[in-house]
Amino acid sequence: MTSHSTPLDRASRFVLAFAALAFGASLALGAAPVFAADTWDVPVTSKSAEDRDMAAGRKALADKQWAKAAGHFERVVSRDARNADAHNLLGYSYRWMDRMDDSFHHYGRALELQPDHRGAHEYVGIAHLKVGNVAKAEEHLARLRQICGADCEETRSLGAKLAEYRSAQR
């Protein structure tokens, strides 16, 4: 008995092979597909939801909507507790909301995950100035100088805030 493939069999094999390839590619990119109940044929990745919340959080920050931004970043860290950028921006949001304990917690988490996170060093340094802890702000400024030198944006920003703080204290 000879095996003959019908055009439908070849098309079905092609579709299955393509679907398997697409699924494998999504796994290789680090985003396991999750299928929404009402759109079973359209994969939605947890990564894309994280990206949407990060983008919406950044937009809310630009619009100075601190609580809204915090909500987006809270969703990101609830999905990925190892996202240093989300922890940093959540700390930033909380700082603007005068929730300093929460702010320091999330800056600290960002720095645990990524010890050379320039943004977290800059922002936690500013947070320390907000509560009057100049020595801690200076520590983070020194760390920024080690990480990226005197001319990087984060070093200049924290240095300027420290100079402003000192000037206002005189």
TrEMBL record:
InterPro entries: TPR-like_helical_dom_sf (IPR011990), TPR_rpt (IPR019734). Transmembrane segments: none annotated. Residues 1-36 form the signal peptide. TPR repeats lie at residues 84-117. It comes from the Bacteria. Keywords: Signal, TPR repeat. This is Tetratricopeptide repeat protein.
